[in-house]
Amino acid sequence: MKLCPDEPKKCLSSHSGRKEFQCLACNKKFHHKAHLVMHLRSHTGEKPFECSTCSKKFSQRGNLQTHLKIHIEEEPFECTVCHMRFSQKGNLQTHLRTHNGEKPFKCKLCHKYFRQKGTLQTHLRTHTGEKPFECSVCFKKFTAETNLRSHLRSHLRSHSAGKFLACTVCNEEFKHDRFLRAHLRSHLADVKPFECSACNKKFSHQAHLRTHLRIHTGEKPFPCTVCYKKFSQKGSLQIHFRTHTGDRPFKCTECHKQFSHEQYLKIHLYSHLAAADKPFECSVCNKKFSQQANLRTHLRIHNGEKPFPCTVCYKKFSQKVSLQIHYRTHSEGKPYKCTECRKQFSHEQYLKTHLYSHLAAADEAFECSVCNKKFSQPSNFCTHLRMHAGEKELCV
């Protein structure tokens, strides 16, 4: 009989069929502790393996080794149809779909099919309007990272004398375009060094903080040329102007209903996503979530963890946003004012909820696609949808 080269205790679970190492975040189980450690990086975002050529980072050593083939031009996988070669087997399989026409990834909203899962995920943002990739130089936002990378080239500055390329953010110089592109990613990190002294909200750019401060100062530099109502942000003025023009540029691709505000469309889309997948389940109460971060926050209810203490009265909170709201009980500040009735609120979310009370008579109420019942507030709309869908948490 062949002996197991591993330690008996380590390989016991693999021979017995048991998976003794469980991820507390998503409940996935593994035979070996090393596999669990490797898996945990998918939750933490840790990427300890860095390419010495282009500085790209990876969560697994194997992925780095596969990536290195790009630089050494090793392409062992050949397409039998057009003889094009690839460094990775997965890339060959994806390429073969261009020959056989296979499109296995389907959009649940518009039923369009895609060859790659990543392309589907990017496409979904055309329905939600989400633009998560922001240029750190000019703050322009994009739905896809590839579009952002292409845009970043517009900020490259060439030095005619030494033919060096300079980063327009920090002026560091590079000899090759690919090194500069790799460096530019360092400016895309989610760092928020600019903090509001009134409500402690943080921002990644000083310009965003300046715009936010108008909430506290009451400054409204953007007047409407029709009714002379003033706004603190140019975007708010543009949205308001649609009340005069009747423009509704945000259209639902499923039922073709149109909205004047992007947020109304996003909320409306939940009516078409009643059966949306929620893969992250709480092992204690079985409540399901669409995002891993929401599950982690929820778990604090069960374990009693409250990592955010108040520096004034030492009361602790499970969420940072709850602490920020609590701080206003010490300062008695209500910085968020309704522009319609002048009522003030201590938290931005309370103001947003209140604003829907001014939309009760509007034809943009949130209508249930199942029973046609209408609601003026998205929270009531979401609660109602659960009645039809049986979802435990439809609106996140």
Automatic annotation (TrEMBL):
Keywords: DNA-binding, Metal-binding, Nucleus, Repeat, Transcription, Transcription regulation, Zinc, Zinc-finger. GO terms for cellular component: nucleus. It is found in: Nucleus. InterPro entries: C2H2-ZF_Transcription_Reg, Znf_C2H2_sf, Znf_C2H2_type. GO terms for molecular function: DNA-binding transcription factor activity, RNA polymerase II-specific; RNA polymerase II transcription regulatory region sequence-specific DNA binding; zinc ion binding. The keyword Glycosyltransferase does not apply. The keyword Isomerase does not apply. Residues 21-48, 49-76, 77-104, 105-132, 133-160, 165-192, 194-221, 222-249, 250-279, 280-307, 308-335, 336-363, 366-393 form the C2H2-type domain. May be involved in transcriptional regulation. PANTHER family: ODD-SKIPPED - RELATED, ZINC FINGER PROTEIN 208-LIKE. Belongs to the krueppel C2H2-type zinc-finger protein family. This is Gastrula zinc finger protein XlCGF57.1-like. It comes from Thrips palmi.
